[in-house]
Design a protein that fits this description.
- By secondary structure, this protein is of the alpha/beta class.
- It has twelve helices and eight strands.
- The strands form two sheets. The protein has a six-stranded parallel sheet, sandwiched between helices.
- A hairpin with a 5-residue loop joins strand 1 and strand 2.
- Helix 2 packs across helix 12 and helix 4 runs parallel beside helix 12.
- The protein starts with a strand and ends with a helix.
């Protein structure tokens, strides 16, 4: 399935089922080969349509899955249904998979306190899990900088097979794209606020709210100044995406 921005940029959802993602990641972990994984949502589509660098970084992602109910709806409209796979929901299954192989994981992003809390939570769920590397970049972190290159070099040297990036879009996707050259043996998975949720530093919408597809409304109510303008931009592009999805049937 392809999502198409107003200016014609195409974003594929490369894996329609979670089982296919898990199989692909397992193959990479066993082979010791890196990859970049992104979870596309409407906010990403807004940014891809406006930001050439973000669009270029997305074009270098090896695995792209559907994050957000609108993307799921668009897949239904296009007659190419995909499974919903929010980044936050993929952390524990992927970490467990890495532990089974067995490969160590790494955590990059957020704050040191959040990384500590997320690691504690993951170790509680997966006692055999090994965390080989952690890094919380300073404010103003630039994924195109020499400092980012050094972080990726340290990550590569750590022996981790899988790394969760919690830097927010577009920084995490841009860093993941650089990983092909700077950390070629590590799979880099962009998961936004996922580590903060695990650590309890941010509260995720209750399960019932998510089941009713109202997580966006719950989040907007918790941070209206930042999120209401973002969601307004997302809703503005939805009719065009829906029209193009319908035409792709």
């Amino acid at each position: 399935m392809f999502l198409i921005t107003r200016n014609g940029r195409k974003v594929p959802v490369t894996h329609a089922r979670r089982s296919a993602v898990m199989d692909d990641v397992r193959d990479h972990l066993r082979a010791g080969t890196g990859f970049a994984m992104a979870t596309v949502n409407l906010d990403h589509m807004v940014q891809i349509g406006r930001n050439v660098d973000f669009a270029a970084a997305y074009a270098q992602q090896d695995i792209i899955v559907a994050d957000g109910r609108p993307i799921w709806w668009l897949s239904q409209l296009a007659g190419q249904p995909v499974e919903l796979m929010p980044g936050s929901d993929m952390i524990v299954p992927l970490a467990r998979l890495a532990s089974e192989e067995p490969r160590a994981i790494a955590l990059i992003g957020s704050t040191e306190a959040a990384l500590t809390g997320a690691e504690t939570h993951l170790r509680r769920l997966i006692p055999a899990l090994r965390v080989a590397y952690r890094h919380a970049p300073a404010m103003g972190f630039d994924p195109e900088s020499d400092a980012a290159r050094d972080i990726l070099a340290e990550l590569e040297a750590s022996g981790a097979g899988l790394c969760f990036l919690a830097l927010g879009a577009p920084k995490q996707e841009v860093l993941a794209a650089r990983g092909a050259k700077c950390a070629p043996s590590v799979g880099l998975v962009s998961i936004g606020a996922g580590l903060d949720f695990l650590a309890g530093h941010q509260r995720r919408a209750p399960r019932l709210v998510r089941a009713l597809a109202l997580e966006w409304l719950w989040r907007a109510a918790t941070n209206p100044r930042r999120l209401i303008p973002r969601y307004a931009r997302c809703f503005a592009i939805l009719p065009g995406l829906a029209w193009r999805a319908w035409r792709a049937r």
